[in-house]
Amino acid sequence: MELILALLIGVLYASGIYMMLRRSLVKLIVGIILLGNAVNLLIFLLGRITKGEPPIIPGDSDVFLQAYTDPLPQALILTAIVISFGLQSFAIVLVKRAHKMVKADDLDEMNTTDAES
Amino acid sequence: MLIAVLSGFIFSLFLVVFGKFFKGRFSLAASILPLSLFIYFCSFLGPISSGEIVSQFHPWVPSFGLNLSFTLDGLSLLFALLITGIGFLVFVYAATYLKEHQYIDRFYGYLGIFMGAMLGLVLSDNLLSLFLFWELTSISSFFLIGFNNTSSESRKSAVLALTITGTGGFLFLAGAVLLGWVSGTFSMTEMLTMREALHGSDFYLLIIFLLMGAAFTKSAQFPFHFWLPGAMKAPTPVSAYLHSATMVKAGIYLLLRFTPILGNHEVWNTTLIIVGGITMFYTAFHTLFRTDLKSILAYSTVAVLGLLVFLTGLGTQYALTAAAVYIVVHALYKAALFLSTGIIDHQTGTRDVTRLSGLRKVMMPVAVAGVLAAISSAGIPPTIGFLGKDLVYEATLGMGDAAIYLTILVLFTNVLILYAGFVAGIRPFSGKLPDNLQKIKMPGPLLWVPPVLLAVLGLLLGIFPALLDAPIVRPVVEAVGGDGAAVQLKLWHGFNTVLALSGLTLGLGFLLYFIIKPSQGKVTAMGRLEAISPKNIALNFGNSFTRFSSAWTGVFQNGFLRNYVVTIVLFLVILVGYSLFSGSEGIVIDWRSLSKLTFYEIAIMSLMFMAVLFIVASRSRLNAVVGMGVLGYAICLLFVIYSAPDLAMTQFSIDTLTVILFVLVLARLPKYLEPSNHARKLRDGVISGSFGLLLALIALEVLQEPVNKEISEFYAENAYVLAQGKNVVNVILVDFRGADTWIEITVLTAAALGVFSLMKLRLKKDERRINE
Amino acid sequence: MKTIILRAASNYMLPLLLVFSVFILLRGHYLPGGGFVGGLVAAMAFVLHAFANKLETTKKLFRMHPGFLMPFGLTLALLSGLMPMIIEESSFLTAMWLSEALPAIGAVGTTLFFDIGVYLVVVGVTLTIIFTISESS
């Protein structure tokens, strides 16, 4: 299982980078989102995956009685998911604004600083 | 003592707010601060001379070993008195000197910071806080050198000085950290007891070279000496205060401070003797080829600093006593000379010694100060300079086999220092008053009293050396590890070699002064050699480095996002890939350790693979958004299967919101471009594909390694016991790592504000112009 | 999408979903949930309402711009961390708890207020982003 998940992560990374290398602004954002998902899954996988053992202490006891999934990567990923939402929306708006100002969505036409354009 | 150190900074902060009211008479009131500090430190004279050491401790960042611990011993007290005493006179003097200046409040602000930092430097017992104060003196010196910020020469000199002293600060930090690591403490008092261990350490040589580098740059030793003459672009009170009496002696202070800890080692002594010797002779020689009064004084200051390093290197009782006395001697006469030069400059508008003469007729008190200071620098009895020079000769004569060479070296230096002192202190006042200077007015008493006071003090201490001996010099010698009572300060030693040498110095000096006249021709002659001076070499190095950097930046920061990504990815693939495959075992994966597949997992993963393919291959933006949605929900299902319910819930909500967001803006976003050519697609595909493969391999490789669950276990075991929560993920977020979460929601807020301001704020005029 | 059924449904859904989001927030310390998820669910409730009705109608439900929830939530979270420093002189963000658990909510401590702060910030951030973007398109 881990093998396929690792391959999936590889595919996500590859497609994320590939989309970032296109010239379109929208593809850039899609690439960033794909990369974000890839990173989350990578952290998740490296924290070791287990089934049916959520890191929640059973109601009637004070400590874990049986095996549990590592809660630390989960806490990391949870914040990462929310932060990436902020990042994505900012990127989307930035692209919108840039598109409006430069009237181009070709990244290659955005390689000069404002002063020169 | 904490208040004493901080008062300078508080004073500057006060000026930030009330600076604009701080003009005219008020600026004179500022001198109350250094005066009261001076009196405060004088009150320690008694206890310190009876062998006491006053210390204070204030924890600051104990986990780094950084504390504000202050120790006042003889050496610190000497410097503290110089800093506050000369500081007081300079504060008074500058009030008149810069009366007309627009930014006099800033000037006092910088001076305040400097004074605080310098006091902190000499009082700190903790190496790290010493470093902080050390850097603060460099920074305040930078602002003061560049004070006339409309002159490009000033700005250049300021940058040069900051570069050199900043490099030294870096060396100091490295040395301090290394020393702290070897000795296990940052307290210099504690290091005193580890002398043997430190001398035996493997890092001993590295440590002393780092610390010496710091001291040499700060105290302008050859080949770093050139920033100090450049620093003369600062207003003259600053030159007198920072670049002669106090800051440039910080390097000497550091060397003396470490003499009992690291000193008395062959390499330590030889290096200091050689560097100090070269510096004092080389720069003293330079004074012959200068006509600018301040320049002459600057070079002779460097020469004296060289002499002090040289004496520290000799390290004998006589040498250390001589160094202690000479610090006082030099501070008194050189500050007096600088201040009188400042008056000449202020009144006549020139500092060119070839155009100045006979000024005694218009400014008698200044002439008195100049002449007294000059004879003190020459070492003519009964000034204190005579005592200092005697001790220096005593020190070199006691050096056994090398005595004769060292003595000759010092003799030449002394002759040249005498020459410099006479040119600066006597020549402008002697001879005939030229016609163009007839109308020069007498300066106000607030200008001439400070130099006169300093010069007279030099004379008084020479006549009554006991005033200096027991209260100041002896504790200093004891603080640097010597026996304070071994050398008695006396004006008259009887007829001996030292007296003969003194006489010889005076004779040669007078001869030199009357034979060699400063002239423009000599300046030009020296200018031809400028190309191979350390200054030019350093400047050329700096310039070529700048050129290299801009070329480098031009290549890599070319504005094409694609190139950045490709560079980063390729670099990573090659480097990480190489280290991954070049290891002795290569990649070993134990397939049996991996868990089995179930039907659900296969279904979800296939869904995800298809979604990704769909996103990449699709030519429509809408399809891509649909694909993203599917991918997100599939990840959500993965989280459900692999026991991460919190993640599943979050992923579900975020995915929904992202899709909504995309749908909202999709119509406004640009359409996809026409597909780029196939060769490029193939190239990008290979690059990104190899990156993906690398990441997948790394993931599999890491899974083979044992995992350290110590932290997770701590959280899991204590979630209920300590934090009364059972959902460990949530407990980590809101309790164990609450500060992180707080910062995270702050970041979220920033993102939202960014979105809001990007969309809602109107285009400015110039932006609209670009738009059209 | 602005059908009558959806509009009618959304009017009932909004309070229901909001209650649900608070439920998720409160149970977060014991079961899956918490401030982040709760805040997101609440934001989705409003977004759903905005889809069914007009955006202006949804915005009228707020007295102020939802963006003002952000500083409010940040301050609440910060204060919940500072409280222990003031009252018990322990370090920043040391949790304090009421000795008795309250009915329906469970044990109440400063971490609960911290989580409420997170909830408010997340609602504020999400709604600010979505409202801003949908207004300008």
Arithmetic mean of pLDDT of chain A = 83
What Rg of chain A do the Cα atoms give? 20 Å
CATH fold category name of chain A? Helix Hairpins
The counted number of beta strands of chain B is 2
Strand percentage of chain A, roughly? under 5%
For the secondary structure, the number of strands of chain A is: 0
Tell me the strand percentage band of chain B.
Answer: under 5%
Order of helices and strands of chain A: HHH
| Overall body shape of chain B | elongated
> What integer value in Å does the Rg of chain B equal?
35 Å
CATH architecture label name of chain A: Orthogonal Bundle
Uncertain runs of chain B are none
Secondary structural class of chain A: mainly alpha
Tell me about the biggest sheet of chain B?
Answer: 2 strands, antiparallel
How many discrete domains of chain A?
Answer: 1
Oligomeric form of this entry?
A: heterotrimer
Describe, in plain words, how this protein is organized in 3D.
The complex is a heterotrimer of chains A (117), B (772) and C (137). Chain A is mainly alpha-helical. Chain A has one domain (2-52, 68-110): Helix Hairpins. In chain A, 63% of the residues lie in helices and 0% in strands. Chain A has three helices and no strands. In chain A, helix 1 packs antiparallel against helix 2. Chain A is elongated. The model of chain A is unreliable at 113-117 (pLDDT under 50). Chain B is mainly α. Helices cover 73% and strands 2% of the residues of chain B. Chain B contains 34 helices and two strands. In chain B, strands 1-2 form a two-stranded antiparallel sheet. In chain B, a hairpin with a 4-residue loop joins strand 1 and strand 2 (66-72). The longest helix of chain B has 32 residues, at 152-183. The two termini of chain B are 64 Å apart. The mean pLDDT of chain B is 86. Chain C is mainly alpha-helical. Chain C has one domain. Chain C is built from five helices and no strands. In chain C, helix 4 packs antiparallel against helix 5. The longest helix of chain C is centred in the last third of the chain and has 27 residues, at 110-136. Chain C is elongated and about 55 Å long. Classes of the chains: A mainly alpha (117), B mainly alpha (772), C mainly alpha (137). At the A-B interface, helix 1, helix 2 and helix 3 of A face helix 26, helix 27, helix 28, helix 29 and helix 30 of B.
